[in-house]
Structures are given as structure tokens and as C-alpha cells.
Write a structure and sequence with these properties.
70 residues, globular, mainly alpha
Length: 70
């Protein structure tokens, strides 16, 4: 059971990190800086940095705001 829990937690971390990496890739391809993108999305620069590094989970609504801004 411990192994299952550890694997489940690791999968969540990997998914958050992957989502953030995709957002960062798109942001850079569009030529946006972190601060410029944060203003477009309506979040702080620190929050966007945490999202891109996978340290903050995001809701479906937040994901939609990010995709619309990019």
C-alpha cells in the first residue's frame, strides 16, 4: 500500500511539472516575459513561476485563462 501511495503522489507531481513546463514553453515561444505573461493572465509573477515549476496546482478555470492569454 505504501508503494501505491508513493507512486500516486509521484504521478501527481509529474503531471503538475509537465503542465507547468508546457505553459513555460508556450510562453517563451510567444515571446512573453514572466512578468508580462503574469499581467496578461491576471496573477502575480510569483504565482506564475510556481505554476510553471509545478509547485502550485491550478484549476480548470486558471488553465483556461492561461491558454487564452497565450
Amino acid at each position: 500500500f505504501r508503494t501505491w501511495v508513493a507512486n500516486f503522489k509521484n504521478r501527481e507531481r509529474v503531471n503538475k511539472t509537465f503542465d507547468g513546463a508546457v505553459f513555460k514553453y508556450i510562453r517563451k515561444k510567444q515571446g512573453h516575459t514572466l512578468s508580462n505573461a503574469a499581467k496578461l493572465i491576471g496573477v502575480s509573477k510569483g504565482q506564475l513561476s510556481k505554476i510553471e515549476s509545478g509547485r502550485k496546482t491550478i484549476s480548470v478555470a486558471e488553465r483556461g485563462k492561461i491558454m487564452q492569454a497565450y
